[in-house]
């Protein structure tokens, strides 16, 4: 666990170590099967995998990166069907399209396991079943690492989390835990997931009211509270930017007074949160059909 946080070279060596990742995954699977998600060794395994998934897409060996991106290029060049509004619409769609990874292997080995749906489901299972804060935080953090970035891998993992593995209810529960770093990591994961346009309506329906409910009335707390608050505002920005329906949902959850208060609270510590709230307000105002509702 300590070695896995030693920087890019250490991560590279550990990812390449034959059988290491497979053994960690095997151990965690056994712990879950034996209903022991809270043991210390499981925590250590998950924290190690969390560290090994950091900047994974950037640090992937060339061969993996090429196979992922070649597949992406082929998909976009083969798809010549114009959308309803001709070529412009198709380009926009292509830009937002989630490109799946090359066919998932039924028996992933080594580094392939790190983004495989089996491990994604394991993380979600630990988030739901473990009561150890470090295990919860590391599981959320690993998913946060895997969904960071804009390549095909983060989008594929995001779709697995939200649609294939139904992970939002477990993540939603973590928004209400008292442990500040667990909450912060859960919000950061949702922020990553919310960048994926095809998942925004699912995410808004499941967690938007919860995100509003955990916004503080004022932000005078610690750094971690300010960072979490900023992250919530940016997540809400992603969810409402192009959806009047989601903006209305935020309004009916009484989010507006809180966001206005946060935007005006620009002490040194809370300037990041204040800026994020202002960006969100500016975006909400762009829904002209909601102006009269806002004014009320």
From TrEMBL:
A GO CC annotation given for this chain: adherens junction
Polar residues composition-biased segments: 71-80
Database matches in InterPro entries: ARM-like, ARM-type_fold, Armadillo, Plakophilin/d_Catenin
Compartment(s) of residence: Cell junction
Gene Ontology biological process terms, A to Z: cell-cell adhesion; desmosome organization; heart development; intermediate filament bundle assembly; protein localization to plasma membrane
KW Transferase (keyword) present: no
Keyword field: Cell adhesion, Cell junction, Repeat
Compositionally biased residues, Basic and acidic residues: 94-107
The keyword Transport belongs to this UniProt entry's keyword annotation: no
Region (Disordered): 71-109
Family: Belongs to the beta-catenin family.
Protein name stated in the entry: PKP2 protein
Organism annotation: Probosciger aterrimus
Gene: Pkp2
């Amino acid at each position: 666990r300590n070695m896995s946080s030693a920087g890019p070279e250490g991560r590279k060596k550990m990812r390449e170590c034959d059988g290491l990742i497979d053994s960690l995954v095997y151990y965690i699977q056994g712990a879950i099967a034996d209903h022991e998600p809270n043991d210390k060794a499981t925590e250590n395994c998950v924290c190690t995998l969390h560290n090994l998934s950091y900047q994974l897409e950037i640090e992937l060996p060339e061969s993996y990166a090429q196979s992922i991106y070649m597949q992406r290029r082929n998909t976009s060049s083969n798809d010549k069907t114009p959308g309803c509004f001709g070529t412009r619409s198709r380009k926009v769609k292509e830009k937002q399209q989630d490109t799946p990874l090359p066919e998932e292997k039924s028996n992933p080995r080594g580094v392939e396991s790190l983004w495989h749906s089996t491990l994604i489901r394991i993380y979600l299972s630990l988030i739901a079943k473990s009561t150890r804060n470090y295990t919860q935080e590391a599981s959320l953090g690993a998913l946060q690492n895997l969904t960071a970035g804009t390549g095909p891998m983060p989008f594929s993992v995001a779709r697995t989390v939200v649609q294939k593995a139904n992970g939002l209810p477990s993540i939603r529960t973590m928004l209400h835990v008292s442990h500040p770093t667990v909450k912060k990591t859960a919000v950061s994961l949702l922020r990553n997931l919310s960048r994926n346009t095809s998942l925004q309506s699912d995410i808004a329906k499941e967690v938007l009211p919860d995100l509003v409910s955990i916004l503080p009335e004022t932000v005078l707390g610690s750094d971690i509270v300010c960072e979490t608050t900023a992250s919530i505002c940016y997540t809400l920005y992603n969810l409402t930017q192009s959806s009047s329906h989601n903006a209305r949902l935020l309004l009916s959850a009484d989010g507006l007074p809180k966001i206005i208060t946060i935007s005006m609270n620009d002490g040194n510590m809370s300037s990041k949160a204040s800026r994020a709230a202002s960006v969100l307000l500016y975006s909400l105002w762009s829904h002209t059909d909601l102006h009269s509702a806002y004014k009320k």
